[in-house]
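not sure who needs this but someone in the group chat was asking about TnsA endonuclease N-terminal domain-containing protein from Pelomonas candidula so here u go. i didnt clean anything up, its just raw.
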Amino acid sequence: MLAFDRRVQRVLEQPFRLYYDLQGKEHRYTPDVQADFLEDGKEWSVVYEVKYREDLQENWLLYRPRFKAATAHCRANGWRFKLMTEHQIRGPEIENIRFLRRYQHLQPQELHRAALRQSLSITGPTTPKTLLAATWFDKEKQMAALCELWRLVAVGEIMVDLCIPLTMNSSIWDARG
């Protein structure tokens, strides 16, 4: 999900090791991931720990001091610490990203791209189905342009709400506003 987020500038796996004291004994903890973001000229970082919900429930007393140490370390550095579970990672967003990633690195089809962008500038927010129909009457031409439409979504030229399952009836809009 982080690799698909255009605001992400850098992702570090196991970015640092923390040492913390628990009942007079030193322990260490290494968070899973740190992501550095940039949006509208503002930079921020989030340190993530990913655990299964069941594991968290069973081992909360073991994990809690680690997470407290990580939270304090992140605050001291102006970062956020965020605990994630499979419930936040799985779902429509990751399924949409998996679908779109196959289109992300395709070679642009410039004629289809130009026609789709022109139609979208006229129609405004619409759906993939309506945009293709507004651009080409012929169904074969619509199908030929479908890969380019998904590529434009994958590279962020056309926007969609990734938190809702992606279909031909999903709302899409021009990234330029």
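also The longest strand covers residues 42-50. if thats useful
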